[in-house]
Amino acid sequence: MRVLAIAALFLLTLSAQTSPKPEKKTAFDKATMEAYVRHLLAVVSDVQVKIDDPKPTAVPDLKQVDVHFTYGNRSQDETFFVSADGQHIIRGFIYGVNDNPFKADLDKLKTDLAPSYGAAGAPVVLVAFSDFECPNCKEEALSLHANLEKAFPGQVRLYFKDFPLDQIHPWARPAAIAGRCIFRQDPAAFWKYHDWVYDQQGNITAENFKSKLLEYAQVSNLDGIQLGRCLDTKATEADIDKEVAEGRALHIDATPTIFVNGRRLVGNYPWQNIQQVINGELNYQKTAHDAGEKCCEVSIPTALSK
């Protein structure tokens, strides 16, 4: 019996030594990554998930993996970082101590030919992604337009970016297209239109937008025929699509979203809070000089630049 027991123990030990160990999962396997992210963020099965191929980062042995979520016409993006062995996932941001902490977003913000007001070459630049049908955008936009240059003469510049939320705001895109049509006619007239749309927001519908726009054109010395044709042909929609794509690359999913020298502010911030942020940035830029407007050239759209 003792011999049999020893033999059985030997066989068990041999089996344990020769049995293959289960392979460790790796986040570089897209199915594994998707299952993990779905569980982490409680993503329902109706949402489509697309996992990008890993990309190198500034940190050795750390790869960036972008994840895209789509549900109907809505989309959202998340960025994860994966260790070189695929065993650890980090959700967050990477900062370089020798760079502006908002450098990644600053590199993605493009202001060429966007409507703007304020001082060229200003040390503080605001880039506002907005929706003409959004009530919070209305409060933020009108507050900024009324106060920004008065409070900070020669120190700030604001650029306006269209980010219509098509799924919930049916006339936001036509209003954005019309705004860029007016901007092509007369860049300065865009800001009068900007204030008018927000002032009339409660009276505008998807059905009456065009008629109200043409009424506005008559009293604003705009070329109504040219404006109507531009709206009907959606001649400036490519401009809107470009800015929406820029916003998505910045992972914007709500309006208003404003960047103050790259610092992201989401939602309708009271004017006093924005003042504090700008004052802090002005003090910081006295020594840092790593944000603001890098040049002072103002480009005006022409028939050759459309």
Which secondary structure elements does this structure contain, and how are they paired or packed?
Blueprint: H1 2-18, H2 30-41, E1 48-51, E2 55-56, E3 62-71, E4 74-83, E5 89-91, H3 103-108, E6 116-118, E7 124-130, H4 135-151, E8 156-162, H5 172-185, H6 189-199, H7 209-218, H8 224-232, H9 237-249, E9 257-260, E10 263-266, H10 271-285
Look at the structure and give the CATH class of the largest domain.
Alpha Beta
SS element count, helices: 10
SSE order in H/E notation?
HHEEEEEHEEHEHHHHHEEH
Average pLDDT metric: 90
Structural class by helix and strand composition = alpha+beta
Number of discrete domains:
2
Oligomer: single chain
Strand content: 15-25%
C-alpha Rg, in Å? 27 Å
Measured between the Cα atoms of the first and last residue, the distance is: 94 Å
Structural summary, described in words:
With 306 residues, the protein is an alpha+beta fold. The protein has 2 domains: 30-91, Nuclear Transport Factor 2, Chain: A; 103-285, 3-Layer(aba) Sandwich (Glutaredoxin), CATH 3.40.30.10. Helices cover 41% and strands 18% of the residues. The protein has helices at 2-18, 30-41, 103-108, 135-151, 172-185, 189-199, 209-218, 224-232, 237-249, 271-285, and strands at residues 48-51, 55-56, 62-71, 74-83, 89-91, 116-118, 124-130, 156-162, 257-260, 263-266. Strands 1, 2, 3, 4 and 5 form a 5-stranded antiparallel beta sheet that branches. A hairpin with a 2-residue loop joins strand 3 (62-71) and strand 4. The longest helix is centred in the first third of the chain and has 17 residues, at 2-18. The radius of gyration is 27 Å and the shape is globular. Residues 297-306 have low confidence and may be disordered.
